[in-house]
Amino acid sequence: MTALGIAHLTSAVVALALGAIVVLERKGTPTHRLIGAGYVLAMLIVNVTALCLFRLTGRFEPFHALALVSLATITQGVLAAVRRRDRWLHTHYYCMAWSYIGLWAAACAESVIRIPALAAAIASPARAIGTGLAIAGAFTLLGVVVLPRVQARAFNSLKT
Predict the structure, then answer these.
(1) Which of 38, 67, 68, 152 stands the most exposed, by the fewest C-beta atoms within 10 Å?
(2) How far is CA 7 from CA 37, 49, 51, 156, in A?
(3) How far apart are alpha carbons 16 and 152 in whole angstroms?
(4) Residue 137: other Cβ atoms inside 10 A
(5) How far apart are CA 100 and CA 106, in angstroms?
């Protein structure tokens, strides 16, 4: 594994851990803001390093496009919280929640490629990309179903 790969993996693990704390922590507190800032920094490193990795095909591939989408989502979520314009909380919540769902999708897709028994079944870059996109699709469906149900709980924690 290269230094770039280690930076990518380390920042991804940090983002997964910090994201879990942010999800479970009461929203709007100084702790939420501090840990959220750490999550954003870790996600920036994850995405920038992802854009520099070309392990599967040696060229730009769908995972690079997803890293760009992740960067845009995180940027929009942070800007919403900083600017605090109309419906900022809704925008911030959905952007940050989707960034975390995307991170889990990427982690699962990467695990499938890295676990030897599973990787053996995915013998080609095309299959790896297809499997990764299928996992991303499954997490998208999960997000569409789960996020609306969790939103009320998140917003209610701000009021109490």
Answers:
(1) 152
(2) 18, 7, 12, 36
(3) 23
(4) 11
(5) 10
Residue-level pLDDT at 156: 64
Task: Quote the pLDDT of residue 120.
Answer: 72
For the record, the structure tokens of 39 come out as: 């999550």
CA distances from 13 to 16, 66, 126, 142 (A): 5, 18, 26, 21
Q: What integer pLDDT is reported at residue 59 of this predicted model?
A: 65
Question: How far is residue 23's CA from residue 31's CA, in Å, rounded to a whole number?
Answer: 12
As a whole number, the mean pLDDT across the chain is 85
Non-local CB neighbours of 46 within 8 Å, separated by 6+ positions: 8, 11, 12, 15, 67, 70, 103
Q: Over the stretch 82-120, which tens digit does the pLDDT of each residue have?
A: 999 998 998 999 899 999 999 988 888 777 776 766 767
Which among 30, 63, 60 is positioned nearest to 47, based on CA atoms? 63
